[in-house]
Amino acid sequence: MSTTEFSNRRIQPELTTFHALAEEMAHSFGYTAELTLEGKLAELVRLRVAQVTPCSYCLVLHTRVVLECGVPVEKVAHLASWRESEMFSAAERAALAYTEGLTTYDLKAFQELHDALTEHFNPTEIAELAAVIINMNVWTRLKLAEGATPRFADRNPEPSSSPA
């Protein structure tokens, strides 16, 4: 099995204190955090943010993590088209719609998206869901600024073409 490595082609985030702040947020709301919100749902939400933004680093990481959490590969494959799939519960659908609304800053529909959550989640779960999404949006933008570029670790880089 291949291992993926990333190189930063733009900035080195450790040069400012912002990276440490982002790491603190990840500790509280990232994929290793202990939350009230159900783990598989939180991971589906993280992956959906990565798809919407799109963040190469986050797509690789959260695809691996969501599969490790036990979400069926077929469900993961349909995540980008969740509206056209019957694999997602009503609660998951509400959370995914809210995820997209918060990630894309849909002010027009946002209150309705929030209200739909109250049918499935308690106030703490809703607050955690928002925090997970906000945390992911910070990380997707940080990784974009870094220029986090994936490659397979067990393969040699492509040779550069040189004139003959």
UniProtKB/TrEMBL annotation:
<dbReference type="Pfam" id="PF02627">
    <property type="entry name" value="CMD"/>
</dbReference>
<protein>
    <submittedName>
        <fullName>AhpD family alkylhydroperoxidase</fullName>
    </submittedName>
</protein>
<dbReference type="InterPro" id="IPR029032">
    <property type="entry name" value="AhpD-like"/>
</dbReference>
<keyword id="KW-0560">Oxidoreductase</keyword>
<feature type="domain" description="Carboxymuconolactone decarboxylase-like">
    <location>
        <begin position="30"/>
        <end position="100"/>
    </location>
</feature>
<dbReference type="InterPro" id="IPR003779">
    <property type="entry name" value="CMD-like"/>
</dbReference>
<keyword id="KW-0575">Peroxidase</keyword>
<dbReference type="InterPro" id="IPR004675">
    <property type="entry name" value="AhpD_core"/>
</dbReference>
<dbReference type="GO" id="GO:0051920">
    <property type="term" value="F:peroxiredoxin activity"/>
</dbReference>
